[in-house]
Amino acid sequence: MLAVADVLSSGEARLRDLPWRASRDPWKILIAEVMLQQTQAMRVIRRWHDWCRWYPTPADLSGVPLGDALRRWQGLGYPRRARDLHGAAAAMVQRHDGQVPDSVEQLQALPGIGPYTARAVMAFAFERDVGVVDTNIARILARTAGTKLTRSTVQSLADALVPDGQGWLWNQTLMDLGATVCRPKPSCEACPTAATCRWHQAGNPMPDPAAGSAGVSTPQAPYEGSDRQARGRTLAELGRGANATARFDRRIVEGLILDGLVVERDGELHLP
DNA sequence: ATCCCGAAGG
DNA sequence: CCTTCGGGAT
User: Fold this and answer.
1) Could you confirm whether domain A25-124 is CATH 1.10.340.30?
2) Which of A77, A92, A112, A270 has the greatest count of CB atoms below 10 A from its CB?
3) For chain C, which bases have at least one atom within 7 A of a protein Cβ?
4) How many CA atoms lie within 13 A of A221 on its CB side?
5) Per-residue pLDDT tens digits for A243-260
6) What is the helix (H) or strand (E) element at residue A270, kind and residue range?
7) CATH fold of A135-215, please?
8) Would you call A254 a catalytic residue per the annotation?
């Protein structure tokens, strides 16, 4: 079992200074967590400050056309996230009096919010003692247990480990540990869990029990030459103004229309 | 090439 | 269960 006290004290000593960690505003935490889905923290910082200034409440985001949000998401990738955050903002205005709901069930009912993000908001905004399972924490728990874990086992284990009243610090510390020490290639000599980590005690045998990170993180297809690259380029161009449909790859455009990221009117393509 | 504080659709 | 979905850093 994890040495909870050692992990907690290591976190108090060297937690990375990320700006959203100074906030408990549920909406700003939600913006950060959505941006952090598949995008590294260092690349999110500047964009998070911008969005908090432009859209300080859900009503501010839901009050602008989706196209505005998409333009202001440009460069972060996965524009569905901006579309869904815009939709979630509208749903919060409609169903929750413009507030971010404070239950896992209500959060997960919003578009773009899954198991990770719902629990991250509960732990990091509302300071509830829930286990937050991202790719980092899943990796740490699998290695500590010394065996590959299923998704639901990791969640139960994560929930059970949270020290009473310290869900915020505990989860932030574990994530940080995964991002800086218990990385895919680990630095076990610097790890506060080394004394209790079964994988380390066994001499880090292959295969790494964290391989696949309990299914929370999925392998990536190559980006160069992919549809994702073509979609990104198309959206970037459309963000600069309406364009004749004929200038773009039809199959890519169809996909973007299907995803609600592009609309076609009078032979021209526009952001929604 | 690999890695990111994942979610939704099939 | 499976695949798709951006983009930058290393």
Assistant:
1) yes
2) A92
3) 1, 3-9
4) 6
5) 877 778 899 999 999 999
6) strand A268-270
7) Endonuclease Iii, domain 2 (1.10.1670)
8) no
